[in-house]
Design a protein that fits this description.
Organism: Micromonospora orduensis
Family: Belongs to the short-chain dehydrogenases/reductases (SDR) family.
Strand content: 15-25%
Keywords: Oxidoreductase
GO molecular function, one term: oxidoreductase activity, acting on the CH-OH group of donors, NAD or NADP as acceptor
CATH topology: Rossmann fold
CATH superfamily: NAD(P)-binding Rossmann-like Domain
Number of domains: 1
Protein name: SDR family oxidoreductase
Mean pLDDT: 95
Protein backbone atom coordinates (compact mmCIF):
# COMPACT_ATOMS: atom_id res chain seq x y z
CA UNK A 1 0.00 0.00 0.00
CA UNK A 2 1.50 3.35 -0.99
CA UNK A 3 1.75 6.21 1.46
CA UNK A 4 -0.87 8.32 -0.31
CA UNK A 5 -3.45 5.53 -0.36
CA UNK A 6 -2.96 4.48 3.27
CA UNK A 7 -5.75 5.29 5.75
CA UNK A 8 -5.32 8.41 7.86
CA UNK A 9 -5.23 8.29 11.65
CA UNK A 10 -5.22 11.34 13.93
CA UNK A 11 -3.48 11.07 17.30
CA UNK A 12 -3.82 13.88 19.84
CA UNK A 13 -1.24 14.35 22.57
CA UNK A 14 1.20 12.91 20.06
CA UNK A 15 4.32 14.43 21.64
CA UNK A 16 3.96 12.43 24.87
CA UNK A 17 5.18 8.95 25.73
CA UNK A 18 1.97 7.07 24.93
CA UNK A 19 1.27 9.35 21.96
CA UNK A 20 4.61 8.54 20.33
CA UNK A 21 4.13 4.83 20.96
CA UNK A 22 0.64 4.95 19.41
CA UNK A 23 1.99 6.83 16.39
CA UNK A 24 4.63 4.15 15.88
CA UNK A 25 2.14 1.29 16.29
CA UNK A 26 -0.40 2.75 13.86
CA UNK A 27 2.32 3.57 11.35
CA UNK A 28 3.50 -0.06 11.47
CA UNK A 29 -0.13 -1.09 10.93
CA UNK A 30 -0.19 0.87 7.67
CA UNK A 31 -1.71 4.23 8.65
CA UNK A 32 -0.62 7.71 7.75
CA UNK A 33 -0.57 9.25 11.21
CA UNK A 34 -1.21 12.94 11.74
CA UNK A 35 0.19 13.78 15.16
CA UNK A 36 -1.37 16.71 17.01
CA UNK A 37 -0.08 18.47 20.11
CA UNK A 38 0.20 21.92 21.68
CA UNK A 39 3.88 21.81 20.74
CA UNK A 40 5.60 20.50 17.60
CA UNK A 41 5.56 16.72 17.66
CA UNK A 42 8.91 16.16 15.96
CA UNK A 43 8.27 12.42 15.61
CA UNK A 44 9.83 10.76 12.54
CA UNK A 45 7.21 8.00 12.74
CA UNK A 46 4.44 10.54 12.04
CA UNK A 47 3.31 11.16 8.49
CA UNK A 48 2.54 14.77 9.42
CA UNK A 49 2.47 16.93 12.55
CA UNK A 50 0.12 19.77 13.42
CA UNK A 51 0.00 22.16 16.37
CA UNK A 52 -3.36 22.78 18.05
CA UNK A 53 -4.85 23.10 21.51
CA UNK A 54 -7.60 20.48 21.42
CA UNK A 55 -9.03 21.87 24.68
CA UNK A 56 -10.33 24.82 22.62
CA UNK A 57 -13.37 23.82 20.51
CA UNK A 58 -12.70 26.49 17.86
CA UNK A 59 -9.19 25.13 17.34
CA UNK A 60 -10.60 21.60 17.05
CA UNK A 61 -12.90 22.65 14.21
CA UNK A 62 -10.02 24.36 12.43
CA UNK A 63 -7.77 21.36 13.01
CA UNK A 64 -10.07 18.84 11.34
CA UNK A 65 -10.77 21.19 8.46
CA UNK A 66 -7.01 21.51 7.94
CA UNK A 67 -6.49 17.75 8.08
CA UNK A 68 -9.26 17.12 5.56
CA UNK A 69 -7.94 19.79 3.20
CA UNK A 70 -4.28 18.75 3.35
CA UNK A 71 -4.39 14.98 3.76
CA UNK A 72 -7.93 13.71 3.18
CA UNK A 73 -10.57 12.06 5.34
CA UNK A 74 -9.25 10.45 8.53
CA UNK A 75 -10.91 7.19 9.55
CA UNK A 76 -9.19 6.64 12.91
CA UNK A 77 -9.04 9.06 15.84
CA UNK A 78 -7.05 8.43 19.02
CA UNK A 79 -7.96 10.88 21.78
CA UNK A 80 -4.78 10.72 23.83
CA UNK A 81 -4.20 14.35 24.93
CA UNK A 82 -4.16 14.63 28.70
CA UNK A 83 -2.86 16.57 31.69
CA UNK A 84 -2.12 15.42 35.24
CA UNK A 85 -1.01 17.69 38.08
CA UNK A 86 -0.77 15.24 41.03
CA UNK A 87 -2.53 17.92 43.08
CA UNK A 88 -4.42 17.38 46.32
CA UNK A 89 -8.14 18.16 46.28
CA UNK A 90 -7.85 21.02 48.77
CA UNK A 91 -5.13 22.67 46.68
CA UNK A 92 -7.12 22.87 43.44
CA UNK A 93 -8.13 26.26 42.06
CA UNK A 94 -10.93 26.83 39.51
CA UNK A 95 -8.54 27.56 36.63
CA UNK A 96 -6.53 24.36 37.05
CA UNK A 97 -9.68 22.29 37.55
CA UNK A 98 -11.16 23.70 34.34
CA UNK A 99 -7.96 22.95 32.42
CA UNK A 100 -7.98 19.29 33.50
CA UNK A 101 -11.62 18.85 32.48
CA UNK A 102 -11.17 20.76 29.22
CA UNK A 103 -8.16 18.70 28.11
CA UNK A 104 -9.04 15.27 29.48
CA UNK A 105 -12.76 15.29 28.72
CA UNK A 106 -13.79 18.31 26.66
CA UNK A 107 -11.20 17.56 23.99
CA UNK A 108 -12.47 13.98 23.70
CA UNK A 109 -16.02 15.27 23.21
CA UNK A 110 -15.24 17.93 20.61
CA UNK A 111 -12.56 16.03 18.68
CA UNK A 112 -14.88 13.05 18.38
CA UNK A 113 -17.74 15.31 17.32
CA UNK A 114 -15.71 16.98 14.55
CA UNK A 115 -14.34 13.61 13.41
CA UNK A 116 -17.77 11.94 13.42
CA UNK A 117 -19.41 14.80 11.56
CA UNK A 118 -16.84 14.53 8.78
CA UNK A 119 -17.32 10.76 8.53
CA UNK A 120 -21.11 11.01 8.44
CA UNK A 121 -20.91 13.69 5.74
CA UNK A 122 -18.60 11.44 3.71
CA UNK A 123 -20.72 8.35 4.35
CA UNK A 124 -17.72 6.45 5.70
CA UNK A 125 -17.16 4.25 8.77
CA UNK A 126 -14.53 5.04 11.34
CA UNK A 127 -13.03 4.21 14.70
CA UNK A 128 -12.36 6.26 17.83
CA UNK A 129 -10.05 5.07 20.61
CA UNK A 130 -9.93 7.13 23.80
CA UNK A 131 -7.13 6.91 26.32
CA UNK A 132 -8.84 6.80 29.71
CA UNK A 133 -7.22 5.56 32.94
CA UNK A 134 -7.65 3.19 35.84
CA UNK A 135 -8.15 6.43 37.81
CA UNK A 136 -11.50 6.83 36.07
CA UNK A 137 -12.58 3.44 37.40
CA UNK A 138 -11.23 3.36 40.94
CA UNK A 139 -10.69 7.05 41.69
CA UNK A 140 -7.47 8.99 42.17
CA UNK A 141 -5.75 11.06 44.86
CA UNK A 142 -5.91 13.76 42.17
CA UNK A 143 -9.70 14.12 42.26
CA UNK A 144 -9.99 16.30 39.17
CA UNK A 145 -7.95 13.84 37.11
CA UNK A 146 -10.03 10.90 38.34
CA UNK A 147 -13.25 12.76 37.55
CA UNK A 148 -12.06 13.66 34.05
CA UNK A 149 -11.10 10.07 33.25
CA UNK A 150 -14.32 8.74 34.74
CA UNK A 151 -16.13 11.13 32.43
CA UNK A 152 -14.06 9.86 29.51
CA UNK A 153 -15.17 6.30 30.27
CA UNK A 154 -18.85 7.30 30.49
CA UNK A 155 -18.54 9.32 27.27
CA UNK A 156 -16.94 6.35 25.51
CA UNK A 157 -19.83 4.07 26.40
CA UNK A 158 -22.40 6.71 25.41
CA UNK A 159 -20.79 7.56 22.06
CA UNK A 160 -20.16 3.91 21.24
CA UNK A 161 -23.90 3.40 21.34
CA UNK A 162 -24.89 6.74 19.81
CA UNK A 163 -22.57 6.48 16.80
CA UNK A 164 -23.02 2.78 16.03
CA UNK A 165 -25.78 3.55 13.52
CA UNK A 166 -23.23 5.60 11.57
CA UNK A 167 -20.74 2.70 11.54
CA UNK A 168 -18.42 4.55 13.90
CA UNK A 169 -16.98 2.46 16.73
CA UNK A 170 -15.91 4.17 19.98
CA UNK A 171 -13.80 2.35 22.58
CA UNK A 172 -11.22 3.22 25.20
CA UNK A 173 -8.14 1.77 26.82
CA UNK A 174 -7.78 2.28 30.57
CA UNK A 175 -4.07 2.08 31.39
CA UNK A 176 -2.82 1.47 34.89
CA UNK A 177 0.59 2.77 35.89
CA UNK A 178 2.73 3.34 32.78
CA UNK A 179 6.33 4.54 32.62
CA UNK A 180 5.80 8.00 31.11
CA UNK A 181 6.88 11.55 32.06
CA UNK A 182 3.33 12.12 33.32
CA UNK A 183 3.56 9.14 35.70
CA UNK A 184 6.90 10.44 36.94
CA UNK A 185 4.98 13.26 38.66
CA UNK A 186 3.47 10.74 41.09
CA UNK A 187 5.24 10.98 44.47
CA UNK A 188 7.84 8.22 44.96
CA UNK A 189 6.12 6.67 47.98
CA UNK A 190 2.84 6.40 46.05
CA UNK A 191 4.62 4.85 43.05
CA UNK A 192 6.16 2.21 45.34
CA UNK A 193 2.75 1.46 46.85
CA UNK A 194 1.17 1.07 43.41
CA UNK A 195 3.97 -1.20 42.20
CA UNK A 196 3.56 -3.46 45.21
CA UNK A 197 -0.14 -3.91 44.40
CA UNK A 198 0.27 -4.71 40.69
CA UNK A 199 -0.04 -8.50 40.22
CA UNK A 200 2.53 -8.62 37.39
CA UNK A 201 4.95 -6.68 39.61
CA UNK A 202 5.83 -3.75 37.36
CA UNK A 203 4.55 -0.66 35.59
CA UNK A 204 3.46 -0.93 31.97
CA UNK A 205 5.20 0.52 28.95
CA UNK A 206 3.83 2.95 26.37
CA UNK A 207 4.28 0.26 23.71
CA UNK A 208 1.97 -2.10 25.61
CA UNK A 209 -0.76 0.55 25.74
CA UNK A 210 -0.19 1.37 22.07
CA UNK A 211 -0.63 -2.29 21.10
CA UNK A 212 -4.08 -2.27 22.70
CA UNK A 213 -4.96 1.00 20.96
CA UNK A 214 -3.83 -0.41 17.60
CA UNK A 215 -6.01 -3.50 18.06
CA UNK A 216 -9.08 -1.40 18.84
CA UNK A 217 -8.33 0.72 15.76
CA UNK A 218 -8.03 -2.37 13.56
CA UNK A 219 -10.87 -4.12 11.68
CA UNK A 220 -9.96 -7.21 13.73
CA UNK A 221 -11.98 -5.62 16.55
CA UNK A 222 -14.94 -4.79 14.30
CA UNK A 223 -17.53 -6.23 16.72
CA UNK A 224 -16.19 -4.25 19.68
CA UNK A 225 -17.68 -0.89 20.60
CA UNK A 226 -18.67 1.06 23.76
CA UNK A 227 -16.03 -1.03 25.55
CA UNK A 228 -13.22 -0.19 27.98
CA UNK A 229 -10.11 -2.35 27.63
CA UNK A 230 -8.03 -2.54 30.82
CA UNK A 231 -4.25 -2.40 30.32
CA UNK A 232 -3.14 -2.41 33.94
CA UNK A 233 -1.18 -5.53 34.85
CA UNK A 234 -4.12 -6.82 36.87
CA UNK A 235 -4.35 -3.83 39.22
CA UNK A 236 -7.90 -3.13 40.39
Amino acid sequence: MSDESAPIAVVTGAAGGIGRAVTAALTRAGHRVVGVDVEPVGDPAAYASLVADVAVPEQVEQLFARIHERYGQPTVLVNNAGVYHARAFLDYDPKTYAQVLDVNLGAVFFCTQAFARSLVAAGRPGTVVNVASISGQSGSPDAAYGASKGGCIALTRSLGRALAEHRIRVNAVAPGLVETPMAARIPVERRDDYRARIPVGRFGTPAEVAAAVAWLADPASSYVTATILDVNGGLH
